[in-house]
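Case study: Transcriptional regulator MtlR.
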Amino acid sequence: MEIVKVLLKSEESITIDKIAEKVNVSNKTVRNDLEKVQEIIEENGLILLKKAGVGISVNGPEENKINLLQAITNRNNYIEPYSSEESLLY
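Here is what the predicted structure looks like once written out:
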């Protein structure tokens, strides 16, 4: 999800190298995750644009970008409550 956040926050196309640097993973990891990233982007009414030699960007309504970014942020801030078994342990 961090890759999606980087893409949504970027005003311009961003290279795989830059994405990898920002999320602290290898280029290969970014490339491997791009299929899932594209699914998430498209499920939210957006388009993932990949231009050789230029980079990657997200295209679509600004409202969709904001909604997806908020959903990711909210998901990352959600703390799973303890299950009944975990409650007994803690």
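For the exam, be able to explain this: The two ends are 30 Å apart (CA to CA).
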